[in-house]
Amino acid sequence: MTRQKDLVGLDLGTSSVKAVHLQRSRNTYTLVELGIAPIHPETIVDGVIMDAATVSATIRQLLDEHNIGVKEVAFSVSGNSVICKKIKVPKMKKAELREGIAWEAGQHIPYSIEDVNLDFEILRETDPSDREMDVLLVAVKKDALNAYLAVISAAGLRAVVADVNAFAIENAFAMSRKAQLDEVVALVNIGAAVTNMNILHDGISDFTRDNSLGGNRYTESLQKSLGLSFEQAEALKRGEPVEGHSVADAMPVIEMTNGELTGAIRNSFIFYHSTSRSKTVHRVVLSGGCALLPGLAPYLSRALGLPVEIANPFQCIVADPKKFDSQYLASIAPQMTVAVGLALREPEDDAG
Ligand SMILES: Nc1ncnc2c1ncn2[C@@H]1O[C@H](COP(=O)(O)OP(=O)(O)OP(=O)(O)O)[C@@H](O)[C@H]1O
Ligand SMILES: [Mg+2]
Hints:
Blueprint: E1 8-12, E2 16-25, E3 28-38, E4 44-45, E5 48-49, H1 52-65, E6 72-77, E7 82-90, H2 94-106, E8 116-122, E9 132-141, H3 142-154, E10 158-164, H4 165-176, E11 184-190, E12 195-201, E13 204-211, H5 215-226, H6 230-237, H7 247-275, E14 283-287, H8 296-304, E15 308-310, E16 317-318, H9 326-332, H10 337-343
Parallel strand pairs: 1-6, 3-16, 6-10, 11-14, 14-15
Antiparallel strand pairs: 1-2, 2-3, 4-5, 7-9, 8-9, 11-12, 12-13
Helix pairs in contact: 1-3, 4-10, 5-6, 5-7, 7-8
Bound molecules: adenosine-5'-triphosphate and magnesium ion.
Residues 13-16, 191-194, 214-216, 234, 237-238, 288-290, 292-293, 335 line the site of adenosine-5'-triphosphate (ATP).
């Protein structure tokens, strides 16, 4: 048996870079290393890398600091540079579809096919008598993908898996939970700039959407309404009082922004309902740094009338308590969801 090659899950988020290294033996995953390095808000803006040198230096530093010597990484993209669409195509073999995917994609994608990298996955068959099958089409803009590949290679690493945030969170979720029969679970990952959503039916992705609304909205609103710097607003948002302002001063702005975020999530659920033969979401699993925002999960639950739980991607991962403080792990868990989902990938997963 060949030994599974190690890889590191590398989440290049707009507010921080996160790395997770797992080791697999049979069906057990063990945490080898992990780390987070903050990056300045102007370094990656709306998923576009503005300062490539800083990003690769941050990646390098993060891996060195944690003694992660593995060179192979799995990374992901999200936001405007990605389009995921469920499409119907005539039933055919995978190899056949690979030949024809560019033509199929041309019917569904608003970009020129030359400007995107295409990938697809044949989803489960709905009805055996059906002449068509559901295919998940993924198109990533080449310039965005190339920018990510460039910073990774400048950090001395090799990208062996390119993924999409929405599928990375699905991968992390799939490890820890079995979905109930016919259950519809919405995975909602609220980062700094983007909210990634993946609605699973029976454990299989049914709908994905990225929304450019995230934790930065709280920070910006606090900055504007209370006249704070970015750093002050970030601290206040996390529940730390800042010069001249108590946490209570921030509450009205936070509540208002909770409402905005909830509105965007609700709209996606309504859209899903109207395009999925009236399926409704049964529960929400919240991840991303904003899942740590005190009060957001209960607010969402009340506003949507649904159970909302906070993701713990480390639930089924063995972590040596002598090496990893369990309180620290718990405090960053939801924010590490994408990186864990990526770390679980295997090089062969890359459909290329
Ligand atoms: N304890 C906390 N309380 C409140 N907000 C928090 C906390 N920790 C992190 N955040 C917020 O979560 C956001 C960062 O989350 P995350 O790390 O998931 O985003 P990212 O991956 O860097 O960004 P994106 O995915 O949008 O590119 C920031 O807006 C940050 O202020
Ligand atoms: Mg993120």
